[in-house]
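Handout for the seminar on molecular recognition.
Each group receives one record of this type.
Step one: identify the two inputs.
Step two: read the structure output and locate the region that could contact LQZAQKY5.
Step three: write two sentences on what you found, then compare them with the reference statements printed after the record.
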Amino acid sequence: MADGLTSVDDHLARILAAIEPLPAYPQPLMEALGLPVAEDVVAPINLPSFDNSAMDGYAVRHEDVVSASAESPVHLPVVGEIGAGKAKLVAMSPGTAVKIMTGAPVPAGADTVVPYEWTDRGVAQVRIERAPSYAQHVRPAGDDVQVGDVLVSEGTVLGPRHLGLLAAVGRASVLSRPRPRVVVISTGSELREPGTQLGHDSIYDGNSFLLAAAARKAGAIAYRVGIVPDEPRAFLDALDDQLVRADLVVTSGGVSQGDFDVVKEALAPLGSVWFGGVAMQPGKPQGFGLLGDDRTPIFTLPGNPVSSYISFEMFVLPAIRKLMARTPYARPTVTARLTHDLRSPDGRRQFARAEYSVDKAGPAVTPVGGHGSHLMGDLAQSDALVVVPEGVAQVAAGEQVQVLRLDEEF
Ligand SMILES: Nc1nc2c(c(=O)[nH]1)N[C@H]1C(S)=C(S)[C@@H](COP(=O)(O)OP(=O)(O)OC[C@H]3O[C@@H](n4cnc5c(N)ncnc54)[C@H](O)[C@@H]3O)O[C@H]1N2
Ligand code: MOO
């Protein structure tokens, strides 16, 4: 690319090539919510697992009640009662009835259930005033799920309905990859923790919240380490402390051309982290590499808040998803109509902050604010990014553009 820059696509390809999904292991069901399952889950039992009643009423033999009507009711002796989970009686003789509750097993000898509403609710004897059809209100075993059915296929992202089904067939855990543990470190001697006093030359650390929240939203467990000053020793010590609990590290700041660019200064000598420019705006200065014996991926993102967030979207989010084996890795674009003209630096892919909407003419996208990568206020007003390709310097209102919808699940 121009100016010795790496393209966005090449940088992402390099990152994804270096990252393998985390090993899968059995997770308790509730831990697996939102994670892709790493097995084909096969039903170990039928659902229902036995013939059971769909109504509160009486279990009967169909041929005993087939003639019942209001004018000519059928009377049957009631020989027992079966509640759900209280099934002492397992069989009944012809010409009798058994009280049965919803969900309770239909006794052998019965094939049909008469709901209370069609009877006098008798205790010793019941009067049946309407004839059910054969097998009415009986839910047969295996009606829903049969042993051996594939309930959830590998790669499915587990939602409430899947987890409910897995529990219903008796699974207490499911094979899936764990949530990646993402450590977020902000660098900069000018940074202060929100809620503390600000000096004349200091600013609050917004980025570690921005990035940790984005990591959590992506499905990771995020550890926000907070602020490390511009001292390489302090930065390396912080990294050392954190690597034990990290599947992925994200830093912000200290990667451009400044005199105190701590991240670059500390990591460049190791040789395992690439630093360079990526042909994008915002987010040009980037770094990526693998650290320590576990070869933990580290992303050194630029400090400007908008740059760090867009870099996260483009590079860290796909990496987190690959660790979870969640596809697609990168957020897909959608097409929308641009409502206002947009200019873009030539030779770089621009990500312009925008608001997505749907009007009478279809999906539309409206740029929000300027190009400055310090504009956090505008970023918070946006829910989309317009992607302007590298070779395009201007896009006119009315043209169709590619858009990343930042709050959409995918
Ligand atoms: N001579 C050059 N200067 C700069 C270049 C360049 O190519 N040549 N690139 C610019 C670009 S583009 C970016 S992006 C930034 C990246 O700088 P760093 O990653 O080294 O980040 P810092 O210098 O530490 O900070 C930049 C900016 O962001 C603010 N910041 C940093 N951390 C946070 C935080 N946690 N929360 C809120 N704001 C933060 C910081 O105060 C600075 O204003 O470099 C340009 N310079
Ligand atoms: O890349 Mo910087 O991120 O343009 O502000």
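Reference statements: Residues 281-284, 302, 304, 307, 373 surround molybdate ion (ligand 2) (CB under 6 Å). The two ends are 30 Å apart (CA to CA).
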